[in-house]
Design brief:
Shape: elongated
CATH architecture of the largest domain: 2-Layer Sandwich
CATH superfamily of the largest domain: Transcription factor LuxR-like, autoinducer-binding domain
Strand order of the largest sheet: 2-1-5-4-3
Keywords: DNA-binding, Transcription, Transcription regulation
Protein name: HTH domain protein
Structural class: alpha+beta
Organism: Halomonas elongata (strain ATCC 33173 / DSM 2581 / NBRC 15536 / NCIMB 2198 / 1H9)
Low-confidence stretches: 187-194
Radius of gyration: 20 Å
Number of strands: 5
Distance between the termini: 53 Å
GO biological process, one term: regulation of DNA-templated transcription
Pfam family, one: GerE
Largest sheet: 5 strands, antiparallel
Mean pLDDT: 87
Oligomer: single chain
Amino acid sequence: MTCLSTTELASWNEAASEAMAHCHADDFPAKLLEAIDTLVPLESTLIILEDSRRAPELLYKRGIPPHNRERVIDRYFSRGYLLDPFCLAVDQGLAEGFYHLDDIAPDNFFNSEYYRVYYLEAGSVEDCYYILDLTPERRISISLYNGLTATPLTSTQRAILQTLDPMVRTLARYHWQNLDERVDTLPPPFAPSPGGGKLREAFLRFGEDRLTMREREICHLLLRGHSAKSSARELSISPETVRLHRKNLYAKFDIGSQSALFAIFLDWLDGWSIEG
C-alpha cells in the first residue's frame, strides 16, 4: 500500500481545489497537471480528444522537446495513431480508468518498429493514461510520461497515479463535459480533422492488392506489435499457421522483417493520403 504524508496530502488537496476552481477556464489543464505534480512530478503530457469518427485531436501538450514535436505531434496525429495500442484499445471500447502501456500493449509491442520510432526516438519509454467518456463516440485521454529524461515511472508513482484516478477523471469530465458543443468552433489544433475515418479505412485496405484476407489480418496484427502466438490467439489459429502466413506475406512484399514491413506501410500510407 502506498502511504502519503500529511504534507503531501495537503499539497494535493490545495492544488486539486485550485484546479476545480479553474474548471471551464483555459488554464484548467495546467492546473490539473500542477495538482498531479504535487505527488508525481511528470515531464510530458498530451491531452487528446479520441473520436471514433475521425483522427484524434490534440487538446493540450506540455513538456514536448522541440526536436521531438514533429514525431510526437505531426506524425502521430496525421497517421501514427493507427498503430498505437492505446488508440486501438479505445476504439475497441476500453473502459474508463487509469492504464499503463503494459496493460494494453500487445506482447511483442516493445520489440516493434513502431515502439522504436514513436516511443523511444521521441524520448518516451512508457505512457500512463487516464481515460474518461464524454459521449459514446468521444473520450478524453490524458497521457503522462517522462519525455525529457526517458525515465520510467516507479511502481510507487504508478500506484499513486492509480489512486488519483477517480478525482482526476471527475475534474476532467466536469471541465470537458460540453466539449462536444465547442470543439468544432475552436482554432487549430483543436478543430476536427475529418480524415481520421479515411485513414482507418486505409489501414484496413493495406495489402489488398497482393495479400489474401488472412495474410492481411496477420499483417495488421504484426504492424501493431503482436507476436505469432498473440496473433494466433486473436485469430483462433495455431502459431505455426501464423508463421506460415507471415512467411508468405513477407515473400509477396520481398522483405524479411517487421521493420521492413513497417517502412512499406508508411510509404504506402503517404501515397494513399496524397491520392485521397
